[in-house]
Amino acid sequence: MSPANHLANHFELLATDGAARTGRLTTPHGVVRTPAFMPVGTAGAMKGMHWREVRDAGADIVLGNTYHLMLRPGAERIAALGGLQRFTGWGGPMLTDSGGFQVMSLSELRKVTEQAVTFRSHIDGTKLELSPERSIEVQRLLGSDIVMQMDECVRLPAGHADIERAMQLSLRWAERSKRAFETAADDTMLFGIVQGGDVPALRHVSARGLTEIGFHGYAIGGLAVGEPQAVMLSMIDETAPVLPADRPRYLMGVGTPEDMLEAVARGVDMFDCVMPTRNGRHGMAFTRFGQINLRNARHIDDPRPLDEESPWPAARNYSRAYLHHLVRAGETLGAMLLSEINVAYYQELMQGIRAAIASGTFEEFKMQTRAGWARGDIAQM
């Protein structure tokens, strides 16, 4: 048995079209259709949305944030209340990140050592320690279906020496994460995270090292952190072919519809991003005609819906004039409606991608989708 097969495979590849893939990932709480977009429920809630809307929009899996949940309400408390699925009422598959990125980005007072990261809570200043072992323990207590290894993410641009140091540390933490994960036997999964910044050779070292350790799936981390899109895509080009073809590939923190379309074309299976809900709270709608800024005055007398052909009711049933009014008046309903419209569009895009790959028409779908974005909403006039 090769190192990559140390852990059981929960992923079934159903079809390919070029490098694009569609498949099925089986978790303890349900099946995830890939390519999949995971809406982000940072603190156990989707901002501006009820879980039933997330489910109705077509999401198979959502993401929870280890750092925020371990601080409040606490992993042990969530475990005592039945785990994240029962605690939140979501009930379906959940992936939790390791917490490492938030420690790096949110805590001003932090120290990285070989053993762990020590930091102060952004809530009350309490000094805490997060090690690979503690990260796995917290995610286990949360009841995650997919657990992420602890890693160190370096913001780009960065120097070669700093990128290499963080990559090598993440590899050592990957080994420790796997050892900690293997102390419990169940059907949950552990994903390794490829680091290496924008240096192809370091990406190769990281990907091969993680493959040797062996994981249920592999994430491409350390991207969408300030680098141009061309750099991100080139790093996917370098990384994806090195990863095991029979395991899911997850591009962390991405992204825009354009980013996801291009990443799928390079063999990526899973995505997550706060953009649908965050942009919704700021008056931006994602549609098949591209992004529409409902703050713009041109919508003030526009009786048209955002998209009369959308499968999502809110995109069909509310006028642009009303949505513009809600956004400009600061009404919570505006943020709620645009958030659900955006999450639904992301899921509609994923469904279209999956169907196109299955039918061998992904390139045609990609061109048609991009043409719609480029044409803009003027096409409805």
From TrEMBL:
Its EC number is 2.4.2.29. Belongs to the queuine tRNA-ribosyltransferase family. Residues 253-259, 277-281 are annotated as: RNA binding. It comes from the Bacteria. GO terms for molecular function: tRNA-guanosine(34) queuine transglycosylase activity. Pathway: tRNA modification; tRNA-queuosine biosynthesis. The active site is at 97 (proton acceptor), 272 (nucleophile). Catalyzes the base-exchange of a guanine (G) residue with the queuine precursor 7-aminomethyl-7-deazaguanine (PreQ1) at position 34 (anticodon wobble position) in tRNAs with GU(N) anticodons (tRNA-Asp, -Asn, -His and -Tyr). Catalysis occurs through a double-displacement mechanism. The nucleophile active site attacks the C1' of nucleotide 34 to detach the guanine base from the RNA, forming a covalent enzyme-RNA intermediate. The proton acceptor active site deprotonates the incoming PreQ1, allowing a nucleophilic attack on the C1' of the ribose to form the product. Substrate binds at residues 97-101, 151, 195, 222. InterPro entries: ArchSynthase1/Queuine_TRR (IPR050076), TGT (IPR004803), TGT-like_sf (IPR036511), tRNA_ribo_trans-like (IPR002616). It comes from Bradyrhizobium ivorense. The keyword Iron does not apply. It is an enzyme of class 2 (transferase). It catalyses: 7-aminomethyl-7-carbaguanine + guanosine(34) in tRNA = 7-aminomethyl-7-carbaguanosine(34) in tRNA + guanine. Keywords: Glycosyltransferase, Queuosine biosynthesis, Transferase, tRNA processing. Residues 19-371 form the tRNA-guanine(15) transglycosylase-like domain. Homodimer. Within each dimer, one monomer is responsible for RNA recognition and catalysis, while the other monomer binds to the replacement base PreQ1. This is Queuine tRNA-ribosyltransferase. GO terms for biological process: tRNA queuosine(34) biosynthetic process. GO terms for cellular component: cytosol. The keyword Translocase does not apply. The gene is tgt.
